[in-house]
Amino acid sequence: MHQRIGIIDLGSNTTRLILMAYQPHLCFKLIDEVSETVRLAEGASDDGLLQPLPMKRSIEALKMFYTLCRAADVQQIVAVATSALREAANQYDFLAQLKQQTELDLRILSGEEEAYYGYLGVINSLPFTDGIVVDIGGGSTEVTAVRGRAISVASSQPVGVVRLTERFVQSDPISKKDFRALEQAVAATFAELDWLKPDVGPTMAGLGGTVRNLARIDQKLRNYPLDRLHGYIFTREALDDIVELLRRSTLRERESLPGLNRERADVILAGAMILRQLMYQGDFPQLMVSGQGLREGLFYEYFLTGQPLPLFADKRAFSVRNLALISNYEALHASKVRELSLMLFDQLQSLHNYGQWEREMLDYAAMLHDIGVQVGYYDHHKHSAYLVFNSALQGFTHREVVLLAMLTRYHRKGSVDVSTYRVILQEDDEERIARLSAMLRIAEYLERSKSQVIHSLRVECDADMVKVYVQAVGDATVEVWDANRRTRLFKRAFGKDIEILM
Amino acid sequence: MHQRIGIIDLGSNTTRLILMAYQPHLCFKLIDEVSETVRLAEGASDDGLLQPLPMKRSIEALKMFYTLCRAADVQQIVAVATSALREAANQYDFLAQLKQQTELDLRILSGEEEAYYGYLGVINSLPFTDGIVVDIGGGSTEVTAVRGRAISVASSQPVGVVRLTERFVQSDPISKKDFRALEQAVAATFAELDWLKPDVGPTMAGLGGTVRNLARIDQKLRNYPLDRLHGYIFTREALDDIVELLRRSTLRERESLPGLNRERADVILAGAMILRQLMYQGDFPQLMVSGQGLREGLFYEYFLTGQPLPLFADKRAFSVRNLALISNYEALHASKVRELSLMLFDQLQSLHNYGQWEREMLDYAAMLHDIGVQVGYYDHHKHSAYLVFNSALQGFTHREVVLLAMLTRYHRKGSVDVSTYRVILQEDDEERIARLSAMLRIAEYLERSKSQVIHSLRVECDADMVKVYVQAVGDATVEVWDANRRTRLFKRAFGKDIEILM
To answer: Does the distance separating the beta carbons of B386 and A376 come in below 8 Å?
Structure first.
């Protein structure tokens, strides 16, 4: 991965830099990240005239980001600005000052472009093909309708958390009157979006700091078992509860609210109100959180260079391979384990009756089963699960992430216990995990010496016994010996004995 | 690391293989491990005549290990056997059969050699210089006195868990009579060790599967917060409780006892009785568990090749560097962060009054602070802590491991919270961790662009303010800017404001 790119995004509340190392179309990895709450929109007048101090703070931060990019030897810097600058009467002043102090070329995105890049980030990283994408920012809110992975309507409203807060949140805790005014202003802003109806698509996806912070508050309140935001789903009822909590608490109380970044403690209520308005107006019962957005969308344009529309053909398969690659996986071994797992899966079809989805999960888990070895050989099945949980896997629900992590966890040792993740899983998932990992475990030990000696297998099932006959291209005694030592999980999961024979 | 070695150890209960990749004197890493409960000593007569079935099982396992070594392209295989074979009247039969079926050269260790390699494993990996090393095996028990890192007395008694169990555990749960007989036999066996007194040295260290399993049972009973055995300390009172538990439970109950490997469920009580006898006889109130032993001791002889006695000059420093190296750390960045951390530590001496020990911990944490980046940049401070907790760090107590992990955890973000580890830490450790990680955090951000621009710093303290003047060899604006954004932890930990100035 010898290409490096820096992506800078100057918002109305925050400015951020991400640094990516990548090889186009093949693999990528985040290598650095910085953010600074610059509040560029602070005190801006109705025609968006930016104030000297916020401008100075923002230029200062951009200078730092630029220096960091140079120090990291990036070949490319992509810097964009959104609503604060877009609407500023004095945007040329700002650009001139910036030009004087750095060599940054700042591209001012239109509302449609901002919506587009947010959409690219979401569509490439969430299990999402149809629905509404909402991006709540400091100075504007983008609402985009997506049908069959393509944008059908995009809108950008010049209403964001910074200006809403300045205008309506004058009291602490907020007074009834202020709250009412805020609620009405938000409702009026989005009234014209008459296409925001549930028939647009089943899912509402949200991105941006406001959404991430609200989701984190919800996770803390619920004691959610994963430390993972991307793909998290929270309900409108949960949002109602958080709005009540924020409404009743003082700024000081909010500053120590678990999950909330203290620099957002002042503006979070306004953000929550925007989100709530959109969920009720469109009658969406829940929101799926995206950890990716504008910056990642911009990145994908460079990463998937040459494509007219930078969408992954198969984001899940891509990202599983990406994780395997950046974890230095052993490709030959993983391929063989995949192959043997799927042979077992297919030939045991009548025992488990699972479909394409389970087959796909088993396939991905086989690809990733050993990535924990980079942490250390001892207990590496546990490390693989840790890496899956903490990865940037794209296109999976949390239930699927838990499933993949648990399959890697149980690929070589242990009796399945998924009680920690009960709230994320469905009732029959424990059995599903036991059965799939039982097959993965047999496949793993049939590749015990990592020499790809077994080229095929044939399964014979009768009432209480499964016999697996293997065909090898060399000496497979270790494989057969060790696979036969690891059948306990299979016996429990399927209620049948199993024997591996040459 | 292009050298690979396989170490095989054929015991009376278990046979094991470890595969190591290494570069002599520089770094090493475990790359594979297998074990099989072969019970070679099963049914052996008083003169140690091995039975055909146990011999067959053992040879079968050794053949598998040999095949695995060949598949892994090891240059060297070191295979040793201990008491079962040492004492067997038919040891030549066994060796002849083995020779027929593999090319393994099996070296039969004397009791003294067995004690020596166990001692090498312990002395190179635990915080231990004086005391008693106990190795409880299937067929023998080695007790070794160590003074100033050297062996002063070594003894090997032909009493191990397999034969003791066969002889005394006839009832289930064990009858009072059998228990008494077991207790008396064990006491009689070690009666001659009249040098086993507390004045030998303060610590008793234990190795082998029995000790590891007893410790794991204790950890489960106590809900111990670390999933780490090496360096774990358990008390004689805890051992008494476990003996009572084992004594009262049936084999079936023991088979599902949390922490206990079910293949040891039959022999564990006999093992516990040996350990208890030695702890009482020598009046040792607690035992420190070693995860390393005979196999690692044999490995160190190859790893530290050329040394008359294969001991690390400084095991802690070696193993911190080893962990950094196998985690592909950025050496220049880590060195600079170490240097700046220690400059801060030294110049803030009057504020914290810490000594050499804390300085050493800060130094090691600075070396390891970024190893989590290999997992992923996002939240890499948490990954660093995970890697430290799951590493094979040598020579540290659990308190020190928690300290190192927490310093890496807080090196860039977050307010210190160590409540999870309260039972391992001392009362003032939370403050200690906050202060040391506050210094580490300032140092980290003074190396923000990883360009080593700051070459020295000068600290000025007055009643409520610390000023840090940095001297740079290039543009250090990013460093000073970012370090000044990260002072909250320092302010809280030291109760003083801090400012970084150029």
So the answer is: no
